[in-house]
Design goal:
416 residues, Purple Acid Phosphatase, chain A, domain 2, 3 domains, 6-stranded mixed sheet, 29% helix, hydrolase, DNA recombination, 3'-5' exonuclease activity, SbcD
Length: 416
């Protein structure tokens, strides 16, 4: 039985704005990410895991500041000193789009740090590569699009898109590596990639480069015993009730308000040939609250805003965003200074006002309502007031029948 710890998408220097810690000089939000990383490293050492897999994206980009490299290096060296075999998969934020440039984790390769191996090219690692562990690992880093495209045989290129060609070649590459697996040993596939069927969180806004998609059937191959993925920040197991587990642990700390409701975790798994037992471990990061208030009574504006606040204990040291929608004419009724005083215990408070202007139907300047056919007025109304799923075509047909009946009745009345 091999015990593996799997985490991904650390992005330790992503949140560099805001207050700084007076002792370390580091941004407080960076310390949040480092605390999560410390929790993971502590667990690996205390539980004496056999292998740690980091499935990519250590930093915000491939040119981290030396201070952040130092902090990342300290944690990885703890694993090295504890004798824990550690695999570092290169992610899309760790690699330059230009071919031949060094990646963000290059120093671990260059210095040949004991017990640490960087996966910067597709590979199959066996016991000799893993300090004698009776295990095999297929490693797929984020593949440079331009370099991969350059390797394609131009003479054999078909009418399919470049992305389709790259995905086909990538699938063939993974299949060829799986064909080399020893059926007697447990096998892990680790990749920084998108797998078909995975659900994206908010991280699409910070992704770099186009995604190549691995087919779900490829990673569900029974020759594999665990699939350790990175790249998507939303934790999910794409084969929860089957074998192998196909796991995105998600990012180690909330990146933005799009991840406010997500639980952040890392995973340990006990793996043997044909079976794996997985356990999720909660990372208690900084709390995020993303609330909305829609004001409906001008006499209770500020009270209604405060009702949207989390409880006092929850608010302390949390990052809180409150978006308030209200009629524009109520702007002066909002006591923002008092509201901000009520949020002083929060680590950050984002108060966003969204005054609403009543929509109006715009008519041609040379025409009055009486000069415009009723059905045209109705169509202008649909343009201003969204239909929200209503069948406007059917409603227009009904309206035309009503207008026609009314007009016929008016004509008969005038003729009589």
């Amino acid at each position: 039985m091999i015990k593996v710890l799997h985490f991904a998408d650390a992005h330790i220097d992503l949140a560099r704005q805001g207050r700084h810690d007076p002792q370390s000089g580091l941004p407080m939000r960076v310390l949040d990410f480092l605390k999560a990383l410390d929790t993971i490293v502590d667990a690996a050492v205390e539980q004496k895991v056999d292998l740690v897999i980091f499935a990519g994206d250590a930093y915000r980009d491939r040119t981290p500041a030396p201070t952040y490299q130092r902090e990342w290096g300290r944690r990885i060296m703890r694993l090295s000193s504890a004798g824990i075999m550690t695999l570092l998969v290169i992610g899309n934020h760790d690699v330059s789009p230009a071919s031949g440039r060094a990646h963000a984790l290059q120093e671990f390769d260059t210095l040949q740090v004991p017990n640490v191996r960087v996966i910067s090219k597709p590979c199959l690692l066996g016991p000799d590569d893993l300090n004698g562990l009776p295990l095999q690992v297929i490693g797929i880093p984020w593949l440079n699009r331009s370099a991969f495209a350059a390797s394609l045989d131009n003479e054999k290129q078909s009418n399919e898109s470049l992305n389709d060609q790259i995905e086909r070649e990538l699938t063939a590459l993974v299949e060829s590596l799986m064909d080399q697996l020893d059926p007697k040993l447990p096998a892990i596939l680790t990749a920084h990639a998108t797998v078909q069927g995975a659900f994206y969180g908010s991280e699409r806004t910070i992704m770099l480069g186009a995604d190549f998609v691995l087919p779900g059937s490829l990673v569900r191959d029974p020759r594999l015993d665990y699939v350790a993925l990175g790249h998507i920040h939303n934790h999910q197991d794409l084969n929860k009730d089957g074998h192998p587990h196909i796991v995105y642990p998600g990012s180690i700390e909330r990146v933005d308000f799009g991840e406010a409701e997500e639980q952040k975790i890392f995973v340990t798994a006990e793996i043997e040939r044909g079976h794996a037992e997985m356990q999720e471990h909660l990372l208690r990061g900084r709390k995020f609250f993303d609330h909305v208030a829609k004001l409906e009574n001008p006499e209770t504006v500020n009270q209604d805003i405060l009702k949207a606040f989390p409880g006092e204990k929850q608010l302390a040291d949390a990052i809180f965003r409150l978006v308030v929608y209200y009629p524009r004419e109520w702007d002066a009724l909002i006591d923002e200074s008092d509201i901000r005083r009520k949020a002083e215990s929060a680590f950050e408070f984002h108060f966003i006002r969204r005054p609403q202007i009543q929509a109006r139907i715009r008519l041609p300047q040379d025409k009055s309502v009486s000069e415009i056919p009723p059905i045209e007025v109705l169509n202008r109304y649909w343009d201003v007031i969204p239909a929200k799923g209503r069948d406007t075509q059917a409603l227009n047909k009904l309206a035309e029948d009503i207008f026609e009946t009314a007009q016929r009745g008016q004509s008969e009345k005038e003729a009589g």
